[in-house]
C-alpha cells in the first residue's frame, strides 16, 4: 500500500509538472510576440512623427511580424503535442522491451493432451519478494475428470491457484505436475490452448454472435457452433433475436445482457473442447434463471473433463466431487457438499450464512410484491 501511494504521488507530481509546462509554453510565446508587435508599433510611431517612416511602412512591418508569429505559435503547439507523444512512445517501447517472467524453456515440448492427473507439490508463491506469501507449501492431487470447487474468503488464494495452473505465473518453490510431468517442460501455448476459462466478466468482441463463438475454434463449422450453443444453453435466447446467430453484439457485447454474454462465453469454451475447464465466479452477476442455464452448460462441459470452479454463490458447486475451503493460502477443509455440511465447520457456516441471506431476500421480494398487489 505504501509503495502504491509513493508511485501515485510521483505520477501526480510528474503529470502536474508536465501539464503546467505544456500550458505555459504557448502563452509565453504569444506574450513575447505581443511585446515584439507592441515594440514595432511604438518605435514606428516615433519614426512617423519625425518623418523617418510612413504609416504604410509601419503596416508592412506589422504584417511581416504576424507572418513570422504564426509559424512560431504553430511550432509551440506542435512542440507541446510532441512532448506528450514522446512520453507515450516511451511507455509503449518500455512495455515492448519488458522481458516476460514466464517463458518457454529451451527444450519445452508440446503435449497432445493435458487430460490426466494434476498435482501441486509443496507450492509456495508470492507476487513480490517483499509481499506476504499467498500460498505456502500448498499441496493438492486432482484426478483426471474430477471437479474441484474452491471457496473461501477473498484474498485466500483461490484465483492464485488457477492462475498458477494456467501458467500465468509459476511457483516460487515446489512444482506443478500434469500427467506426472513438470508443466514447465511444456510450452506456454500448448498449456493455455488446452484450458478453457469462463470469467466473472465475460469479454465479447465487436461482431456477430457466431463470430464470437467461433473465436474458440477458428475453423469450426456452422453446425459445430450451433451444437456448442445448445450444450451451453445459449441457443434458446439466440433464436429469439431478429438475426439469430448473425446478431451484432456491439462494442464489448454492450447490446447484450450480462447473462447472455456469459452464455456466449460458455459456448465459446464448449466449442474449444478444452482438457481443463476453469469457471471463475461466472454466475455471480446473473439472475437465478440464467444461473440455472449456465449450470446446465457447465455440466455438459465438465463431463469427463478436469474442472476447477471458483464461486461465492454456493448453489453452483453442490455437485462438485470435492469442495476445498481455501483460507490464508491453505486448504482449511475438504470434502463433498454433504460431508462438509455434516462436519459443521467453516464451509457449514459459510453455507448457512448465505442460505439465510437468500431467504431474507426472497421474503423481502415476496412482501414487496404483496404490497404492490
Q: Can you list the strand order of the major beta sheet?
A: 6-7-8-3-9-10
Distance separating the two termini: 51 Å
| Secondary structure tally: strands | 10
Strand content: 5-15%
How would you describe this structure to a colleague?
- This protein has 373 residues and is of the alpha/beta class.
- The protein is 51% helix and 15% strand.
- A six-stranded mixed beta sheet has the order 6-7-8-3-9-10, with helices on both faces. Strands 2-1-4-5 form a four-stranded antiparallel beta sheet, with helices on one face.
- Helix 1 runs antiparallel to helix 2, helix 6 packs across helix 8 and helix 8 packs parallel to helix 9.
- About 2% of the residues have low confidence.
Report a brief summary of the structure.
With about 375 residues, the chain is an alpha/beta fold. About 50% of the residues lie in helices and about 15% in strands.
Features:
single chain, 373 residues, alpha/beta, 6-stranded mixed sheet, 4-stranded antiparallel sheet
Topology:
Blueprint: H1 2-49, H2 55-97, E1 118-125, E2 135-142, E3 147-151, H3 158-165, E4 173-178, E5 181-182, H4 188-192, E6 195-198, H5 209-214, H6 222-232, H7 235-239, H8 258-272, E7 276-280, H9 288-302, E8 306-310, E9 322-327, E10 330-335, H10 337-343, H11 346-372
Parallel strand pairs: 3-8, 3-9, 6-7, 7-8
Antiparallel strand pairs: 1-2, 1-4, 4-5, 9-10
